[in-house]
Amino acid sequence: MMSYDVEALRAREFPWTQQGEQIFLDNAKTGALPSRAVETLKSWAELRAAPHRLTPYQDLEVFQKTRELVAKLIGAKIGEIACMPNTTYGINVASLGLPLKSGDVVLTYDGEYPADVYPWMSLARKGVKLELIPKLDGLQDEARLLEEMKRPEVKAVTMSWVSFSTGFRADLETIGRACRERGIYFVVDAIQGVGAASLDVSKLHIDVLACGGQKWLLAPWGSGFVYVREALIPELEPMVVGWLAMRSSEEFTRMVDYDFVYYDDARRYQINTLPAPDFAGLNASLELFFELGPESVAEHIEGVVSEAVQWALANGDKVRLVTPADPAKRAGVLAIAPRDPVAASEALSAAKIFHSLREGAIRLSPHCFNTREEMGRALEVLGGERP
Ligand SMILES: Cc1ncc(COP(=O)(O)O)c(C=O)c1O
Question: Is the pTM of the predicted complex or chain greater than 0.90?
């Protein structure tokens, strides 16, 4: 695997890492924008200040580029990708559009991120029931889920690819296959995974995958995408209908002919107007991933995370490793529970180490620009904080 020069990357794209003493290990909350995305946002603000400089379809070209780049990143066809302003919108494309009816059951894990719970809970109004699979030893219980999926009333399964709190990485292959065998829809929230780990949807049985750009894709707020499996598109009704979702919208000189024919691809789920500058920023960040190599980025993150996993295993008297130790079961989100999480969080903050406190654990989430030394510093503080 090709690796890249982290110091050069820091100097070029994340110059603030070389100014001040702060260590940023909180990309699972908000990813850092690379300089090229910052420059892109600035140039779009300047264009808007003098809009005569915009070319006629400059915004629409940005969305098309996003669809191309995202498709390349996750192994999808461009027709399977629609631009979305956040993860939630993509999840709602599934929850509102899937043909679920009274008596159907949707399964997810207890402890899922609320964006993956409330949209499905709201289906109670039409008699669809969301059931939560309890955790086992604090982690997502895949075996129990697979067992529950045998019930005939289960019609959809939804989950995060990587859990925001435990860092548990779902086995999308096994769950997807089980869904396909039983005719169950499989909906994935990938915001804590895409950008940190590699994904090839062409080899998985996922029906809908939603992802915001603001975390591991190092992209602006307001950018994101949804993947809808090609064969599902005719069946998945758009529940919010956009004017650019129609084929006729391509012809701006005949806008009021009102020809109600959706695009036959995922653009039928897209709503406009979307924030073009934010998507241009996402495109810039995606180009950075392709320059570094998405696999190399994933490998780099794994190197930094595994440093901490080994440390936590060796320091079991001080901390409890919440995230599974097995590299196949985790990605960039690492949760470590000290005996006193609040005191540990305060000690990290005092040392200017940016992290999150989630569900009683310290969450550390390094990205392509973080170093093992930075992670080491965080571990020193975590260890030293113990009585
Ligand atoms: C698993 C997960 N899903 C969704 C979100 C956010 O959703 P949205 O992009 O809709 O704000 C987060 C974090 O904020 C998250 O961790």
Answer: yes
CA dist 233 and 230 (Å) reads 6
Backbone angles phi, psi at 186, to 5 degrees: -120, 115
DSSP string, 366-387: --TT--HHHHHHHHHHHHHT--
For residue 55, the CA-to-ligand 1 centroid distance in Å is 33
Shortest-distance atom of ligand 1 to CA 163: 1
Nearest CA to ligand 1 atom 8: 87
Q: Ligand 1: which residue has its CA nearest to atom 2?
A: 113
Can you give the pLDDT at residue 1?
62
% of the chain exceeding 70 in pLDDT: 99
In angstroms, the CA 237 to CA 271 distance is: 14
Answer whether residue 243 shows pLDDT above 80: yes
Give the pair of three-digit tokens for residue 128: 């669809």
From 164, 359, 363, the mutation candidate for ligand 1 (largest count of ligand atoms within 8 A of CB) is: 164
DSSP state of 363: E
Question: Between 294-314 and 372-384, two packed helices, what is the crossing angle to 10 degrees?
Answer: 20
| Residue owning tokens 């779009």 | 44
Distance between CA atoms of residues 25 and 315, nearest Å: 20
Burial class of 328 by CB neighbour count within 10 A (0 to 12, 13 to 18, 19+): exposed
Q: Whose CA is nearest to atom 14 of ligand 1?
A: 29
**CA–centroid distance, residue 224 to ligand 1 (Å):** 11
Structure tokens at 24: 């940023």
* Pocket lined around ligand 1, Cβ cut-off 6 Å: 86-88, 113, 115, 160, 164, 189, 191-192, 212
Contact 3/371 with Cβ under 8 angstroms? Answer: no
Report percent pLDDT > 90 for the chain: 95
CA of 87 to the centre of ligand 1 (A): 6
Atom of ligand 1 nearest to the CA of 214: 9
Contact status, residue 27 vs residue 50, Cβ threshold 8 Å: no
What the block records as the tokens of 191 is 């915001």
Domains of the chain: 6-30+293-384 (3.90.1150.10), 48-290 (3.40.640.10)
- Does 386 score more than 50 pLDDT? no
Q: Tokens for 321, please give them.
A: 């490793």
Instruction: Determine contact, residues 161/172, Cβ cutoff 8 Å.
Output: yes
